[in-house]
Amino acid sequence: MNVKINGDDKQLEKEASILELLEIEQVKMPDMVSVELNGDIVDREKFETTIIKENDRVEFLYFMGGGAIGL
């Protein structure tokens, strides 16, 4: 099955949930990742039930905190 993950073409053996995809892709700190599926942000509560299908586009979004630089 062809999917695009973070802009890269990937092959999956079968359909997978977002939760499974996080494991397959060995995403570090999955609790800190937001997931965009075909342009829409998926609620974390739906990671287990949202299935990735042929030709889907998935983006893993990592949010990082920053600080102010003193002048």
TrEMBL record:
SUPFAM superfamilies: MoaD/ThiS. It comes from the Bacteria. Gene3D superfamilies: 3.10.20.30. InterPro entries: Beta-grasp_dom_sf, Mopterin_synth/thiamin_S_b, Thi_S, ThiS/MoaD-like. This is Sulfur carrier protein ThiS. It comes from Metallumcola ferriviriculae.
